């Protein structure tokens, strides 16, 4: 899924990581899939992304091992959606740290509000991406809820391999 060059054979792990994760859509798609929104229509609508761009990104992310296709029932019809793999779930600390960084270093738009990341195990907000800043436990998707006041929702994350 290279943006510029193929860095997949580079010795530098940062370059190899960016070869897979360097497209901003990739992390946004993983964010939504970890929240259980892995249906194509939900991804398209939540991300406001064109269908051709989303289709290409999803295919590349499945090929890269970040997502897996999963069946779900839509009425009487079986359809396919996307769920996070362990590789995608391992990106949770990075996504959460990006949220912390964005809260600290980017201006809040008019009408916005603080997004809290709540560690459900201890019930406290964490300000760290990988380990709960309150209890010190390692954070996993199934233990996390993101409180998004601008949407008036508490969005519980999903374990790898699941689709809501």
What can be said about this structure in brief?
This protein has 164 residues and is an alpha+beta fold. It contains 6 helices and 6 strands; from the N terminus they run ααααββααββββ. The protein has a 4-stranded antiparallel β-sheet with strand order 4-3-5-6, with no helix packed on it. It has a two-stranded antiparallel ribbon with strand order 1-2.
Helix share of residues?
25-40%
Overall 3D form: globular
Q: The biggest beta sheet, please?
A: 4 strands, antiparallel
| CA radius of gyration | 16 Å
CATH-scheme architecture of the largest domain: Orthogonal Bundle
Please state how the strands of the largest beta sheet are arranged side by side. Answer: 4-3-5-6
Order of helices and strands: HHHHEEHHEEEE
Q: Which regions contain 5 or more consecutive residues with pLDDT less than 50?
A: none
Structure explained in plain terms:
The protein has 164 residues and is an alpha+beta fold. It has two domains: 75 residues, Orthogonal Bundle (Arc Repressor Mutant, subunit A), CATH 1.10.10.10; 69 residues, no CATH class. It has six helices and six strands. The strands form two sheets. Strands 4-3-5-6 form a four-stranded antiparallel beta sheet, with no helix packed on it. It has a two-stranded antiparallel sheet with strand order 1-2. It starts with 12 loop residues before the first helix and ends in an 8-residue tail after the last strand.
């Amino acid at each position: 899924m290279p943006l510029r060059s193929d860095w997949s054979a580079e010795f530098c792990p940062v370059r190899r990581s960016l070869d897979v994760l360097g497209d901003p859509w990739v992390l946004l798609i993983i964010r939504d899939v970890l929240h259980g929104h892995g249906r194509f229509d939900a991804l398209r609508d939540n991300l406001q992304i064109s269908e051709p761009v989303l289709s290409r990104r999803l295919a590349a992310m499945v090929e890269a091992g970040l997502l897996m296709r999963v069946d779900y029932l839509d009425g009487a019809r079986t359809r396919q959606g996307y769920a996070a793999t362990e590789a995608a779930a391992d990106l949770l600390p990075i996504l959460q740290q990006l949220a912390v960084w964005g809260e600290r270093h980017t201006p809040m738009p008019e009408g916005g509000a603080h997004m809290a990341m709540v560690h459900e195990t201890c019930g406290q907000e964490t300000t760290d991406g990988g380990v709960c800043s309150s209890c010190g436990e390692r954070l996993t998707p199934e233990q996390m809820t993101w409180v998004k006041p601008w949407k008036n929702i508490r969005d519980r994350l999903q374990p790898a391999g699941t689709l809501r």
